[in-house]
Structure formats: C-alpha cells, structure tokens
Write a structure and sequence with these properties.
Shape: globular
Radius of gyration: 22 Å
Distance between the termini: 48 Å
Order of helices and strands: EHEEEHEEHEHEHEHEHEHEHEEHHH
Structural class: alpha/beta
Strand order of the largest sheet: 3-4-2-1-5-6-7-8
Number of strands: 14
C-alpha cells in the first residue's frame, strides 16, 4: 500500500526532537517493514537534509515551508501556504492512505478524496485543538483515554459522527531502548561525578509549562529544608534550530531564578541527547520530575524513566492523573513544592528504585507492539466516511452534566 504521511514538526535523520516525532518514526518504520511504501512530508529546516530515508520503504521530504520555530507554524505568507497545498496535492496523488500526525493539517479539502487517519498527540496547542474541530479524518487515534475524552468533550459536542471514529492507542515504550543501564555511559560524556552527587532529572524541552521552575522550587526545598546538599538538577538545552525568542526568554527567566535563589552549584544544563543515550541518562538519575502544568495527552518522559528503573514524580495534570495506577508513579498536586519535596526526600533518603515487577507492569500497560500493530491496522483498514457535520446541541432541564476531563476538584 502507498501511504502519504504529514508532520508539521520537522524530522531529522539523526535526532529525535520529542515524543510526537519519536512515535511518528516508529509507526512509519513499522509500516515500511510490513512492505508498505511510505512518504513523509514535514517542515523544512534550513541547513538540514531535505530528503532522506528512515527505512528502505520510508522516504522523508522535509520541504514544507511552515514557520519555525514554534509557536504559530501557520505564520507564513500566502504564497508559502499555497506552495504547501500544491506540494501535498502532488504527493497525495496515487496514494492509498493519508496519515496526519498530530492533527495539525488545517486544510481538509486537500484530502477529502482519500481515506485519512489523524493521530492527536496533544490537546493544548492551537493547531491540534483547531484540527480536532475542522479536520475530516475518517479515523482518529488518541494516545490516552484522557486525550480521547478531551476531544469527545469539545469537538465531539459540535460534530456529528466524531465519537465513532476515535480509537484509543496508548504510546508504547520500547524495552530495547528503555531499560536499566550503565549510568557511567552518559555520566562520562556529561562530566557527572556519580560518587559525589545525586541527580534530579528534568528531561523536557524548555517550555514554561513543562515545569522547570517548579522543579527548581522543589530542588531548593530539598537542599535548604531537607539538607540534600549533594543534589544537582539536570536539564537539556533545546536544539539551536528549534530555538526562538520564547525559548530564549524562558531560559533567561530560569537563569535569573537560579541566581536569585542561590542554586548555581546545583543546576546543570547539557546538550540534547540521542535516543540511544536515554537509558543511561535515566539510569543515572535518582528521580525524574514531570511537575509542570502542561495537560499532557500522554507524557512520555515520566514512563520512560520508570522503564529504566528510576522513579517518576508527576503533577496530577492532564493524563498523569489516570494514565498509571498510583502504585507505579508518585503523584503530587501541581505547584506544591512542600508536598513534592517531602515525597522526593522519601525517595532519596531510602534510595528507592522501581522494582522489576513494577517496571514490567508499566511495559505491559504501555506495550510497544500493541501500539504499532493497532496504529498499522487503523491506517491500513481505514475507509472513506461521509463528512462530519456541525450539529446543534439541545439543552433542556433533564440534561445531565459532568466535569470536563481537563477539570479536577
């Protein structure tokens, strides 16, 4: 089968920029391994390769002139948007399926003639939110029950037939990539002294909602109130090609916070790591923090860490409230550094690690093979449906209500 795929995020031949891109590459490689011919259209990055192979059957064309870095990928000229449309129309000709990764192609007329599958990787960024309302995908993949409920409770209230198109396919964790590993492999490259220090991990991109400032507040309490003087928080710098004024402004805000609170000796920024380095990186951490207010649709970092044997502390925001049972992940209220520091101190003082039983339970719940086979089946078996229509909501005294999934008491 011939498949055209679309990503508004750039894809690199030698780097992975985040969870969405990681899972896109896995799904496309899996389709290619099954004998399908896949072409991926994605955003162009100046200075990076415009055409390359991910697999012998998966060819990437990084040629679409979307605006980078984010936000506002559609902040392009009318000519550039016209060029994007023409390129997609040319590439879609003769294809059997069209796969939109992250639901961010906001031009549904381009694919109205071909069975189309849209996979939503978040429910926050404007292009994804708008895509859930105006997209006309025949099948919709959501990465968690929470994410599916968000779409049902928003776009599903105004679009007929949306609910029957939704499939919940949780992201899978690759046990060959994420497993307890030798921490020295990354420690040597990053010049970390594992005998002298213990490390808190914040392996997220530099976005305020990802919780770096909240992590620093926890660090400060651990040092000053709990006497954990040997702690260092590790956080990656963003790829230069993806940096914009928002990232630079946030980084300066963080540097000012570190200086003001006397944390200079307890924070280390490092380069963006490759996928094959992550198991060692997670393994060198005492715990991993995912404590921001971004209502993640899935939240890869927290669960990858557990698969590597390192405990995760998550804020009960978005899918983190329900993705895993409480015995597998430490859950805290958002922006309560006192509560968080107490839990982190318990982990640190007792040198707690993830048990093999719990680690295997996470890998079973977030099974990679199930993800890949489910996504492949949905894509290959998709058929063309009638367009979804706007439907009026009839509100009356007998109607019952519930809290929306993004709300919490």
């Amino acid at each position: 089968m011939k498949i055209l795929a679309f990503s508004i995020n750039p894809i690199f031949p030698d780097r992975v920029t985040g969870g969405a891109s990681k899972h896109l590459e896995r799904v496309l490689r899996y389709l290619g391994e099954k004998g399908n011919q896949v072409t991926l259209l994605c955003a162009a990055i100046p200075g990076s390769k415009s055409e390359f192979e991910l697999h012998s059957n998966v060819f990437v064309k990084a040629i679409l002139p979307f605006h980078l870095p984010f936000p506002q990928p559609y902040a392009v000229s009318p000519f550039e948007l016209s060029s994007i449309s023409h390129t997609i129309l040319e590439e879609i000709s003769g294809k059997d399926r069209f796969y939109i990764h992250d639901g961010e192609l906001l031009l549904p007329e381009l694919y109205k003639h071909i069975p189309t599958i849209s996979s939503f990787r978040d429910n926050v960024y404007p292009e994804s939110v708008l895509g859930s309302f105006i997209g006309q995908a025949d099948e919709i993949i959501c990465v968690s029950p929470y994410s599916a409920d968000v779409i049902r409770s928003s776009a599903g209230l105004v679009l007929s037939g949306l609910d029957e198109r939704i499939h919940v396919v949780p992201n899978g964790i690759d046990p060959e990539v994420f497993h307890p590993s030798d921490p020295d492999l990354v420690a040597k490259e990053l010049l970390l002294d594992l005998n002298k220090h213990r490390f808190l991990l914040h392996p997220h991109r530099p976005e305020s909602s990802k919780g770096l400032k909240e992590s620093l507040k926890i660090l400060e309490k651990l040092i000053n109130q709990f006497g954990q003087k040997d702690l260092i928080l590790l956080s990656p710098d963003w790829l230069p090609e993806m940096q914009g004024h928002l990232e630079n402004s946030f980084k300066q805000e963080i540097l000012d916070f570190i200086e003001t609170h006397g944390l200079n000796d307890h924070v280390r920024f490092h380069g963006w790591l490759k996928q094959d380095q992550l198991a060692s990186y997670y393994s060198c951490g005492a715990l991993t923090l995912s404590v921001g207010n971004n209502p993640e649709a899935f939240g890869n970092v927290a669960y990858e860490s557990i698969a590597c044997g390192t405990p995760s502390v998550v804020a009960m925001v978005g899918t983190h409230r329900t993705q895993l049972p409480d015995h597998l992940v430490y859950k805290i209220q958002y922006d309560d550094p006192s509560e968080a520091a107490e839990i982190c101190y318990l982990i640190l003082e007792n040198n707690l690690r993830v048990s093999e039983r719990d680690r295997l339970e996470v890998l079973s719940l977030l099974n990679l093979e199930k993800q890949l086979t489910a996504c492949s089946s949905i894509i290959l078996n998709a058929t063309k449906r009638e367009p979804m229509r706007i439907r009026p909501q009839i509100i009356h005294s007998a109607k019952s209500y519930r809290l929306a999934p993004w709300c919490d008491l």
